[in-house]
Amino acid sequence: LANGQKVQRECVITNLARTLRTYRSEAADRLFPVLTAQLASMDSTHQAKAADSLSTAAREGALADSDVSSHLVPFVVAQLAKGGAGAEPWVGTMLALLGHRLVPKRQLREQVLEL
Q1: Which of 27, 38, 51, 68 is the Cys-Cys partner for 72 at CB 3.0 to 4.6 Å?
Q2: What count of Cα atoms within 13 Å lies in the side-chain half-sphere of residue 9?
Q3: Using an 8 Å Cβ cutoff, are 51 and 89 in contact?
């Protein structure tokens, strides 16, 4: 993913929910740092696909709060803070994370409610 290979990027994003469902915390620990670093430079189509996959993973119970607190929540908050059309896909992701109580209370108070 970090090398910018188009096919690899497509596969990671397309299979993200299934990978997180299958490998749980191990996948989150390895993917989230790289994924969040790369997503900022991806086009809106890839960001929307990734946001949808992450929302699906949250709804399916494939994520734990410990998986999302260090990389995913700060990234989603940053995308929402930017506003505009680029933030729209991340609204659903944040709602899924909040709906499944995956955002730790401290982060909810300090980062999310500040939006």
Answers
A1: 68
A2: 17
A3: yes
C-alpha distance across the termini of the chain, in Å: 30
* Cα angle for residues 99, 105, 16 (degrees, 5° grid): 50
How would DSSP label each residue in 50-84? HHHHHHHHHHTT---HHHHTTTHHHHHHHHHHH-S
Percent of the chain with pLDDT over 90: 38
Q: For residue 48, what pLDDT is reported?
A: 93
Alpha carbons 108 and 99: distance in angstroms, whole number: 12
- Asked if pLDDT for residue 75 goes beyond 80, the answer is yes
The span from the CA of 37 to the CA of 34, in Å, is 5
